[in-house]
């Protein structure tokens, strides 16, 4: 009898413990689910804000930065155009000789190899057309090649402005019969753009603080920043020449006067747009 009671107590004890364990596991599972759900909700909310900033209370401001600088490089293009008959090899030899003399001249005046670039080389046939039509079954003969035109263009970058005018007149003396696209630019605009960008960001920050103060709220964290930089495109200038011709005939010109070269200044502008959270 005593053994039966003892066994009954043992079974009751283990049944009670098993129920308690199940209860603990159940509550732990519920708690874990609540924590996971809350974390997922918070992550989803945070992710939604990152994906769609419009879902947040935000405002945006813009600022412009401007830097006036003096160009440090002048560039121009000279061409040698050679026209003649059907002896193409002779025309090419004449053209190359004049171009090489012009290139040797600019090198002798301090222009480095890296600042000389061939931009174009072309050979084009010249045709003679018959002045007739199709009348009474007569058909005009096809156009006949009567000669060729050889053209070679070279870009020169001059870093010493004091020599720019002499360079332009000198290549003409050496045989170039076309000089064009005189331009002044900044060789490395990185620092100038950085200065303009810093100005633009500071102005945008000041504007954000003013808007927040006027609107009665605080500026929150920076959500995004966009830049719309503007750097002046090449502005081709005409050199002022003291004589009447730059030698646009086939043989260049005799003693071309050096043109007056003025670089002027360039304005570099950078625009930034900042978006902030409203606190």
Briefly note the structural class of the backbone: alpha+beta
Major beta sheet, strand line-up: 3-4-2-5
In helices, the fraction of residues equals 25-40%
> In the CATH classification, which architecture of the largest domain applies?
2-Layer Sandwich
Instruction: Please report the total strand number as a whole number.
Output: 7
Number of helices in the DSSP assignment:
4
The CATH C-level name of the largest domain is: Alpha Beta
Q: Identify the CATH homologous superfamily of the largest domain.
A: Protein of unknown function (DUF541), domain 2
CATH names the topology of the largest domain as Alpha-Beta Plaits
Identify the overall geometry: elongated
Beta-strand residue fraction? 25-35%
Largest sheet report: 4 strands, antiparallel
Average pLDDT over all residues: 78
**What are the secondary-structure elements, in order, as H or E?**
HEEHEEHEHEE
Distance between the first and last residues' Cα: 77 Å
What count of structural domains?
2
List the uncertain runs.
233-253
Report the C-alpha radius of gyration, rounded: 40 Å
Task: Characterise this structure.
This protein has helices spanning 2-51, 88-108, 164-173, 190-215; strands spanning 58-69, 73-84, 116-128, 144-158, 178-185, 219-230, 266-278. By secondary structure, it is α+β, with helices and mostly antiparallel strands. It has two domains: 2-51; 69-189 and 232-271, Alpha-Beta Plaits. The longest helix is centred in the first third of the chain and has 50 residues, at 2-51. Residues 233-253 have low confidence and may be disordered.
